[in-house]
What we know:
This protein is α+β, with helices and mostly antiparallel strands. It has a single domain (8-161), classed as Gcn5-related N-acetyltransferase (GNAT) (Aminopeptidase). Helices cover 30% and strands 21% of the residues. The chain has helices spanning 17-30, 41-48, 102-117, 133-138, 154-161; strands at 8-11, 56-61, 67-78, 83-93, 122-124. The chain has a five-stranded mixed β-sheet. It is globular and about 65 Å long. The N and C termini lie far apart (58 Å).
Amino acid sequence: MTTPVIPTIRPVRPEDVPAVVAMVHELAEYERAPEQCHLSVDQLTSALFATAPALFGHVAVDERDEPIGFALWFLNFSTWAGVHGIYLEDLYVRPPARGTGAGRLLLATLADICVRRGYQRLEWWMINWNPAAGFYASIGAEQMSEWVPYRLSGDALNQLAGQATNVGTRTGD
């Protein structure tokens, strides 16, 4: 009997991007929305490795240093607490690697970043039928049922943006 190899967690490298993009598409398929996923290698590379990136990522790798899971995240800010936090955009572990601890290690890495930097929150959304809810509860994550997510996109986003014509001098665009 062989001892299972514990995955290693490290920041995403440029050579990992094709595997991460493939896993994002696998996640979209899992979440029954593959037609909504349009992420490309160029897009993710530009986002992760910009001069001042707003997106960050970590991968879980196997003993051959091949990505088997990933976490893509960015900073948010709590005006009430007055500090940043991490918003986890996506967490995914490939099915053959589930049960290896990769997901827990990815979350532990982000929790460690929060603690070391003085951030008070690590937050994410989960589709309501995802069986990972039990795992999240087991690590102490709390479901935020009193907060209702909203999204503005497509035509509605464009229509509202059109109402910004009387905005004074724009800064930071």
